[in-house]
Amino acid sequence: MSQPTSQTSTLGYFRWAFIVTVLGLILGGVLGWQSEGTIGGMLTVFFICAVLAVLEISLSFDNAIVNANKLKDMTPVWQQRFLTWGILIAVFGMRIVFPLLIVVIAAGIGPIDAVILAAARPDEYARIMNEAHLPIAAFGGTFLMMVGLSYFFKQEKDVHWIEVIESRMARFASIKGVEIAFVLLLIMLFSRLLPEAEASTFVHSAVYGLLTFLLVEVLGGLLDAQQKTMSAAAKGGLGAFIYLEVLDASFSFDGVIGAFALTQNLFVIAIGLGIGAMYVRSMTIMLVEKGTLAEYRYLEHGAFYAILILSVIMYVQTMVHIPEVITGLGGAGLIGLSLWSSIRYNRMERQREASSGMKHSHA
């Protein structure tokens, strides 16, 4: 990854995403023709792939911004590893292997049997996936909540978008483990709203989500500290890579489960979400290379607020279904607001500098 530059056009960053979109939609059309044998069936699958791609992109604006936030502190070598190997893990691991793994564990069958089940009995496959929604939502929601709160509960954080909330959170950051206590309290409150059998599953899965976040943080710190002792220039290496992979997995839970509302075909889901994941990669590269996060000071704030809202939505989804469109639009709306606030701030700063310059020239 090069230093921030504006040589590449915005469309240039999405070249590979466009290529994958065309190939993915063609493959989706072929799958539709093979499974239905009609033009109508082919167009239906084609349309579902397109909708799934849009769904994944809308749910992943915040993912791209958070990735860019972490990537800008990583060495070029590890940046490149994440954007090549990391994206392969994201597309194939989370969109194909993860749903299969859930069925393997939930149904107690082998991986090959899970693939056969997905291909031959998609309705049964979808039923198992939907039954696994509660523990997945609890785990993913807790991990994302810790990610969001850790951003705001920082003593050194001095740039605030929503001053009244963020300044208080920064002040309370001096209390060790305050975000952990907050999340544990929320877990207990939500568990009381669920039936007894489901409450136990929810608490266990949520605690595993919390432990995973803490483990990744500790492991990341140890690995990156070890690299720093080997080389003073090494910064943000394997530890940051693992953190980003677990983070991407948590973001993917919602999209993967939600996709089953549109189709029960695992392969169609993989194509649609895989297309969306390529746009996330392109957005991430663009944000890092163009230095967009530094240029728009509140953009990160919007992304982390979107993460917090997504985590709460995942908790609420253990009780009632919330359409993915609402989740996606909510996150995109917050990021749009933060972008608008950043542009307004930049404009006011330029006006202030211009008026200050005029005063000096008159003096």
UniProtKB/TrEMBL annotation:
This is DUF475 domain-containing protein. InterPro entries: DUF475. The chain crosses the membrane at residues 12-33, 39-61, 82-112, 132-153, 173-194, 206-225, 232-251, 257-281, 302-320, 326-343. The keyword Transmembrane applies. The keyword Ribonucleoprotein does not apply. It comes from the Bacteria. Keywords: Membrane, Transmembrane, Transmembrane helix. It comes from Rhizobium oryzicola.
